[in-house]
Amino acid sequence: MVSLDCTLLNFSEKDLFFSIFENYGNDFEYTYKGVFRRTPPPLCPDCGSGMNHNGYNTYSKKNLGSVKIGRYICPLCGEPGEESREFWESLKKEFFSVLNHVYQILRVNHVSYEGISDLMEAIFPRGKDTILRAFTDSVEKAVVPPLEVSYIVHYDEQFPKRGRSQKYRLTLLDNFTAQPIADELHNKKDPNTIKKSTNP
Ligand SMILES: [Zn+2]
Q1: Starting at the edge strand that comes first in sequence, how are the strands of the sheet with 153-158 ordered?
Q2: Do 52 and 120 belong together in one domain?
Q3: What is the pLDDT of residue 5?
Q4: 46 CA distance to ligand 1 centroid (A)?
Q5: CA 26 / ligand 1 centre spacing (Å)
Q6: Are 156 and 123 part of one and the same domain?
Q7: Strand-pair category, 65-73 with 35-38
Q8: What is the DSSP string of 43-106?
Q9: Domain carrying residue 50
């Protein structure tokens, strides 16, 4: 990126900005108003003439921040255009994958979803259902070590209440990697239920 217009407020963050935009060529700029766009606007995909800068669109993520992405317009045929916001999407992805990792560590250490939610309130507010969903997704994507490597499985149970009915959350954890292997909600926790859930 050839041009990063800093103000006194964001000057101290210039190294961070450069690391975010390091993959962009010298035809991109981050203006002092915080707009990300091409310095010379791109060519019109329709008629091929040079487009003009045309303001920006704002994309926000609650409690995280927002970005301004430059818009273009063709002076000849009126075709609108917008810069790609790939860097913003990958920043969000990176951020939420760190959160997923935090949930896993807390779950491995037996913190309940309610407890994680209470803690997240101080960092980045998340409801316990959102945490449960993110956790379940990350468990599904987790690469479980192959079975021939002998490993010890830990078993953990929690007793969340759904409405007025008592539920039982049964979790299997790998002894060596401390990664959750399976995590299910059951109505009861008699030996049969446990046996079924530990033998998927
Ligand atoms: Zn055009």
Answers
A1: 153-158, 168-174, 180-186
A2: no
A3: 66
A4: 5
A5: 24
A6: no
A7: parallel
A8: BPTTT-SBPEEEEEEEEEETTTEEEEEEEEE-TTT--EEE---HHHHHHHHHHHHHHHHHHHHH
A9: 3-84
- Give the per-residue pLDDT at 127: 84
Q: How many domains is the chain partitioned into structurally? A: 3
Q: Which residues of the chain have pLDDT under 70?
A: 1-10, 142-155, 160-164, 174-179, 194, 197-200
Instruction: Give the pair of three-digit tokens for residue 136.
Output: 């379940």
> How far is it, in rounded angstroms, from Cα 41 to Cα 82?
10
Task: Give the distance (Å) from ligand 1 centre to CA of residue 74.
Answer: 5
- Element at 178 (helix H, strand E): none
Compute the distance from residue 72 Cα to the ligand 1 centre, in Å.
11
